[in-house]
Amino acid sequence: MGRNMAVKRVNAFVLKVDPVRENSQLVNIFSFEYGRLKTLLKAGRQSAAKRARSIEQLSEYEILIYFRETSELHLISQFSIIKDFQRIREMRYGLFHSIAIIEHILKLMPLNEPSEKIYNLLKKSLIAIEGGCDARVVYLLFRLYLLKHLGLLPQTEVCTSCSRKLSQDAYYVPYKGGLVCAECFNGEENGSIFMKSSMALVKLLRSLSSLSLNGGFEARIGDELLRDANRLLDFHISYHLDVQLKSTEFLRF
């Protein structure tokens, strides 16, 4: 171990694996102890048997890491599986939504900022999908909880223009960060993207946003409401975080 390296053992989910050079892999992980990290798994760091298994996206591992003080890229020394979520890999929609959840962590969580709440949320979400909960509902709740953690939930209680409590259909306007009542809504809002939101959708987002991390995964939500809620969050995330998630392209509600 080099002078500028410290060895740490962490529990982590693998977010993404990319091959680099011969038999080496760039592994993005989300760890319980240190948050999102970029790591490198070099050829020869594992025995032949363990290399044959490789390290897989979506699985949770115990990983021994050499932390570099002068770089954001750290070295994986050893890893052992904690949970592989194999059942999810056999579920078409469960797998699609689980990968989408993983992408949110990869794209929205900053490097080197641990969050016990989000780590536990990720684990509970995957366990819920594997256990048979509607993956679409779990995905929606995960997104709401994550946005709440980031302080970026869309405003659904009051009109973002006049501050009156919303009691009927409204319009979601991204640059306002939430909903605008029908009285304040100005046509196409000067050409910006907008989305009409039914009162049923408004009430759904309010109720789900108020749930604790321990509840809600078994909720039953109609297809149309699920589609509209996730579409609204797509607009919100794209505008306020300037991130285009690939998962929104292959998920169809």
Automatic annotation (TrEMBL):
- What HAMAP family does the record tag this protein with? RecO (MF_00201)
UniProt xrefs under Gene3D superfamilies? Nucleic acid-binding proteins, Recombination protein O, C-terminal domain
Q: Which UniProt keywords apply?
A: DNA damage, DNA recombination, DNA repair
Provide one Gene Ontology biological process annotation. double-strand break repair
One Pfam assignment: RecO_N
Name the protein family. Answer: Belongs to the RecO family.
Q: Does the keyword DNA repair apply?
A: yes
Please give the name of this protein.
Answer: DNA repair protein RecO
Annotated source species? Candidatus Coatesbacteria bacterium 4484_99
Q: What does this protein do?
A: Involved in DNA repair and RecF pathway recombination.
| Domain DNA replication/recombination mediator RecO N-terminal, first and last residues per copy | 5-84
A GO cellular component annotation in the UniProt record: bacterial nucleoid
What SUPFAM superfamilies does its record include? ArfGap/RecO-like zinc finger, Nucleic acid-binding proteins
Signal peptide extent? none
Domain of life of the native organism: Bacteria
